[in-house]
Amino acid sequence: MRNTLDLAASFYCKPEITLEITEHQIGDKVVLECNVPEGDKKPYYAKGEDEKWWVYIRNKDKSLLASKIVVDVLKRQASNLGTMISYGKNEEALMKYLEENERINLQEFRKMVNISKWRAAKILVNLISAGVIRNHTHEKTEFYTLA
Fold first, then answer.
1. CA distance 18 to 125
2. Can you name the CATH fold of 67-146?
3. From CA 135, how far away is CA 103, in angstroms rounded?
4. Which residues in the chain belong to E strands, given as ranges?
5. pTM above 0.70, yes or no
6. Residue segments in the chain with a per-residue pLDDT below the cut of 70
């Protein structure tokens, strides 16, 4: 069983992950405890049943599909490159909105400043990477708050 888990970890994950497996003898059964330590080569992709590669994040006891914004933030953090922020009218409007409101989502931000989804996402990735705002991912929603 241990070899099967190691094989699955190498075949279904990229980059490959290392599992920490401990065997426990309980009565006449062997129970495997499998720990997946946090890696430093984020993001990690898992091969889905559709043969596509997906990124998941943990939120308490759930594994949630990561949004493109979260994947881009993980890539930026792993690159160890700094984040240059151009603080223009869109960023200023977002900061003002978040000072007066608890949170905002991508669609609300995009509509508020009348920019494309791609441009809005890029601004959010920059501000999250710089630690100015925080991303919150839940089962059906993703929103942003001041850090």
1. 29
2. Arc Repressor Mutant, subunit A (1.10.10)
3. 10
4. 13-14, 20-26, 29-35, 45-47, 53-59, 62-65, 133-137, 142-146
5. yes
6. none
